[in-house]
């Protein structure tokens, strides 16, 4: 591997490091050298890092993928290209970009990324804050709705848990695809955000009997598609609400659940999983082309959570808040510059 020599590499940067797996408190603000990159990689000067629930699963040490310690958390960021390896043709210094995965972690002033997981950010339409909300949320919404559910215009979809990072973009993408969108949130603020994202019908998943109201609105035929953010709580309800030949796509689940499998027989419906990390290089290319186009269109409006401001000095709070919030309101972002 040829390591690129650059004046930036002599610099010390602010970053967050995790030296031992554990609770949010293991996220420590540190000063470390700017990371080195090889001839095939890019160095990004970050502006914002997007926080996703998976960042906390990885940090806790319970996730299937465990980084070598110490590591810098975060996969989503926005920023500008600070330097490129000599074999990189896709980007040049100064380009505005966002990432969905990086080599060195996004909770830092600089990170190294592979070009195929780095994407142009259309700053004519989107801010750097919004750019940090695109990576995992947009690509997961795309994979769930288009690749897994094979959604078609005119179908009905329930985004079950629509107020967070993945949910808000799922609502926007589903509307763009021409679906009739049913969606849930757990607070008044969440409901407002989901409404602004374009959902046709909105319900509070913390109220009793909300599924009865959904069925009253959708009709006896049920929902063609359900994108599920908390399957361990909702899978049985989903089986009751889905239509004959419907598709339930599990995006999130945080435990086990008892279901009545006979519903799958009676309806010949499908329960399938969605895992963004299973995307192949051709999937990333397809999704990259789609997001380049979609960034030009006014419907794509990543929702930045304004509940609190975060910086590299309180990433521990962001990790804690995303898992125990009173209610999601879009995507949490960390300001990585001073
Ligand atoms: N499979 C994959 O590749 C993949 C990729 C990205 C994310 N995920 C997972 O997908 C889930 C959502 O991700 P995210 O980034 O959108 O997280 P987030 O921003 O933290 O949002 C969580 C969402 O879950 C909702 N929720 C809470 N209780 C619920 C309930 N009883 N029924 C339905 N929804 C409920 C929240 O609503 P309120 O807060 O308004 O109650 C909120 O809309 C997470 O579990 C995450 O780990 C999976």
Beta-strand residue percentage? 15-25%
Q: Count the beta strands.
A: 15
Give the overall silhouette. Answer: globular
Alpha-carbon distance between the two ends: 32 Å
- At the first level of CATH, the class of the largest domain is Alpha Beta
Topology pattern, helix = H, strand = E:
EEEHEEEEHHEHEHEHEHEHEHEHE
CATH topology of the largest domain: Quinone Oxidoreductase, Chain A, domain 1
- The level of helicity is 25-40%
Radius of gyration: 20 Å
Major sheet details: 7 strands, mixed
Bound molecules: NADP nicotinamide-adenine-dinucleotide phosphate
Low-confidence stretches: none
State the domain count.
2
Count every helix, treating DSSP H or I runs of 4 or more residues as helices.
10
Structural class: alpha/beta
- CATH architect. name of the largest domain: Alpha-Beta Complex
Mean pLDDT: 96
Explain what you see.
- By secondary structure, this protein is of the alpha/beta class.
- It folds into 2 domains: 7-134 and 302-335, Quinone Oxidoreductase, Chain A, domain 1; 138-277, 3-Layer(aba) Sandwich (Rossmann fold).
- It has helices at 53-60, 128-131, 135-148, 165-176, 188-196, 210-218, 231-241, 262-267, 281-294, 315-323; strands at 12-18, 27-33, 42-50, 76-84, 96-99, 110-113, 118-120, 156-160, 180-185, 201-204, 223-228, 242-250, 270-273, 310-311, 333-335.
- Strands 3, 4, 5, 6, 7, 14 and 15 form a 7-stranded mixed beta sheet that branches. A 6-stranded parallel beta sheet has the order 10-9-8-11-12-13, with helices on both faces. The protein has a two-stranded antiparallel ribbon with strand order 1-2.
- α8 (262-267) links the parallel β12 and β13.
- The radius of gyration is 20 Å and the shape is globular.
- It starts with 11 loop residues before the first strand and ends with a strand.
- It binds NADP nicotinamide-adenine-dinucleotide phosphate.
């Amino acid at each position: 591997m040829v390591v690129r020599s650059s004046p930036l590499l002599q610099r010390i940067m602010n970053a967050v490091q995790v030296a031992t797996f554990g609770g949010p408190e293991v996220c420590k603000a540190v000063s470390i050298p700017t990371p080195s990159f090889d001839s095939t990689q890019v160095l990004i000067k970050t502006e914002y890092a997007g926080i996703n629930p998976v960042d906390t699963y990885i940090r806790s040490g319970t996730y299937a993928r465990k980084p070598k310690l110490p590591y810098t958390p975060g996969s989503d960021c926005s920023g500008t290209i600070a330097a490129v390896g000599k074999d990189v043709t896709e980007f040049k210094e100064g380009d505005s970009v966002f990432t969905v995965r990086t080599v060195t972690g996004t909770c830092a002033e600089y990170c190294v990324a592979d070009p195929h997981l780095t994407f142009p950010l259309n700053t004519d339409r989107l801010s750097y804050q919004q750019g940090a909300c695109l990576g995992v949320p947009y690509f997961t919404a795309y994979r769930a709705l288009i690749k897994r559910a094979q959604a078609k215009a005119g179908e009905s979809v329930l985004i079950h848990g629509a107020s967070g990072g993945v949910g808000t973009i799922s609502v926007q993408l589903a509307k763009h695809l021409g679906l009739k969108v049913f969606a849930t949130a757990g607070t008044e603020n969440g409901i407002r955000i989901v409404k602004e994202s374009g959902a046709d019908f909105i319900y509070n998943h913390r109220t009793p009997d909300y599924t009865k109201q959904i069925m009253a609105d959708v009709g006896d035929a049920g929902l063609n598609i359900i994108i599920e953010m908390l399957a361990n709580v909702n899978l049985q309800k989903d089986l009751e609400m889905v239509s004959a030949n419907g598709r339930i796509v599990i995006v999130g689940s945080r435990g086990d659940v008892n279901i009545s499998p006979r519903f799958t027989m009676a309806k010949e419906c499908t329960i399938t999983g969605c895992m963004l990390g299973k995307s192949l290089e051709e999937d990333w290319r397809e999704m990259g082309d789609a997001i380049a186009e979609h960034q030009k269109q006014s419907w794509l409006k990543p929702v930045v959570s304004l509940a609190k401001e975060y910086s590299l000095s309180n990433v521990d709070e962001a990790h804690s808040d995303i898992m125990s919030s009173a209610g999601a309101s879009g995507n949490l972002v960390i300001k990585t510059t001073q």
